[in-house]
Amino acid sequence: MVLAISFLEAPLKFRAPGITVRLGLGIGRIVFRALNVAEGVLLVVAAVAVAVGDAPGAVLVPLVALAVLLAAQLLVLRPRLNRRSDRVLAGEDLPRSREHIVYVAAEVVKVALLVTLGVGALSAVG
User: Fold this and answer.
1) In sequence order, which residues have a C-beta less than 8 Å from that of residue 12 and are 6 or more positions away?
2) The pTM is what?
3) Domain, as residue range, for 59
4) What's the confidence (pLDDT) of residue 111?
5) Which end of the chain has fewer CB atoms surrounding its CB within 10 Å, N or C?
């Protein structure tokens, strides 16, 4: 989901014919809100599975890191990006934001952590 939305849907929607910045931002807000809800639910499911099972550090460490990263995105970065997009939607002409670059970097780290978590989980099983 992270790869599809953050690295495909998000940048490509602005290249679609007829998509304005206002429309793209509106779509992006809805899509990322849904992604974050799904991420939160899956994080809780994974945390319950780890709590019930006997998870090695190869699973626990990336899971905790993912939880911290998702919390930072939801509690710090997303509100800042939403305030900025509110200004753009109100007609302000703003330069690219550093928060957006930080969010993209966080998504890259998230993908690396998800791969690490998956490898750790598979190694624990096999």
Assistant:
1) none
2) 0.90
3) 2-14+21-125
4) 97
5) C
